[in-house]
Amino acid sequence: PAFANASCNSPLSSGFRIVSKHDGITAKTLRIRPGSIDASNDNLDGSFPDLTGKTLVIAPAGNATQSFRIAHNTPTELVIEAGDLLAYLPPLSGWNMQQLRRRIAEDEGTAREPTEAEIRARQEELKQTFLVCDGAPQGVWNGHFQWSTRNQNFDRNRTEDDIVDEPGRFAISIRAVRHKLSDWDEPFATADVTPRRTRHFRPAPGETVRWENWDMSDPDNPVKRDDGEVVADPHGLVTVPRFVIKNEQWGSRLVLTRAFRP
Predict the structure, then answer these.
(1) Rounded CA gap, 148 and 242, in Å?
(2) How much of the chain, in percent, has pLDDT values that exceed 90?
């Protein structure tokens, strides 16, 4: 699903941003490929920016646990004030672990858990990318939402939280969760929700679709909290505005039903 106008979004505090790949690191320095980041928002004439005091993040991602303050720089090297770039290993997200398992399965033809050496190699691979920004690299847009899928199943022993994708009906369980880069901590959030890449549920442009919001805070006793109708856009996409998403158990279940069932 796509989310827009989420009430749990928080301002991104970094206005100046450079994302690139380095040519190597030591404990205190990061080497830059000549000419790779000459252009910047602060230096419209193309000269190299002064990055003193800005924040350096190795392997930038939502689960990054550490950042470094830049002491000074040249066009080919960043020097940090404190910390150890060489020793730092970025944490692997669930998605990265899933990709690593998939890579192993494709290479070996069998499913197994990655070894410590394979995890370390993936972490080193991610370390090739770096981010330079103003202040703390905090702020979250749409990062508070999870939805139940095969790889992130809210309850593997039950099917009521699973995605339903049929010609006449679509359903998905979504919940709001806390995020370490945000101070948001509420019992629910609202967002405009648009299911995408559906395989079978494909309304015609202009078609009216009925939606329902089921509170799944207690999976054994779901309660319908709201319902209404929306019209599919020119691409056949359906957006439910200000959909309430709970943060307990399975959260909230969005159910879409077509009046015309192919």
Answers:
(1) 20
(2) 64
Q: What is the pLDDT of residue 29?
A: 96
pLDDT for the residue numbered 194: 98
Q: Is the dihedral of CA 126, 131, 137, 141 positive or negative?
A: negative
Query: In angstroms, rounded to a whole number, what is the distance separating the alpha carbons of residues 206 and 204?
Result: 6
Contacts (Cβ under 8 Å, ≥6 apart) of 147: 1, 163, 172, 173, 174, 175
Q: Which of 194, 158, 182, 181 is nearest to 65 (CA)?
A: 181
Q: What's the CA gap between 216 and 213, in Å, rounded? A: 9
Across the beta sheet with 188-194, the strand order is: 2-4, 188-194, 240-246
Phi, psi dihedrals of residue 148, rounded to the nearest 5°? -75, 120
Q: Which residues contact 91 (CB under 8 A, 6 or more apart)?
A: 63, 64, 65
Extract the tokens encoding 203.
Answer: 């309304």
SS3 category, 105: helix
Specify the long-range contacts of residues 55-58, CB closer than 8 Å, at least 24 apart. Answer: 55/14, 55/132, 55/133, 55/134, 55/135, 55/136, 55/137, 56/30, 56/80, 56/130, 56/131, 56/132, 57/130, 57/131, 57/132, 57/133, 57/137, 58/25, 58/85, 58/88, 58/90, 58/127, 58/129, 58/130
* CB contact at 8 A, 119 and 100: yes
Identify any residues that bridge with 175 across adjacent strands, giving them in sequence order: 146
Tell the burial category of 177 from Cβ atoms under 10 Å away from its Cβ (0-12, 13-18, 19+). Answer: middle
| 7-28 core/surface letters (b: 16 or more CB in 10 A; e: else) | ebbbeeebeeebeeebeebeeb
For 189-239, the pLDDT digits (tens) are 999 999 999 999 999 999 999 999 999 999 999 999 999 999 999 999 999
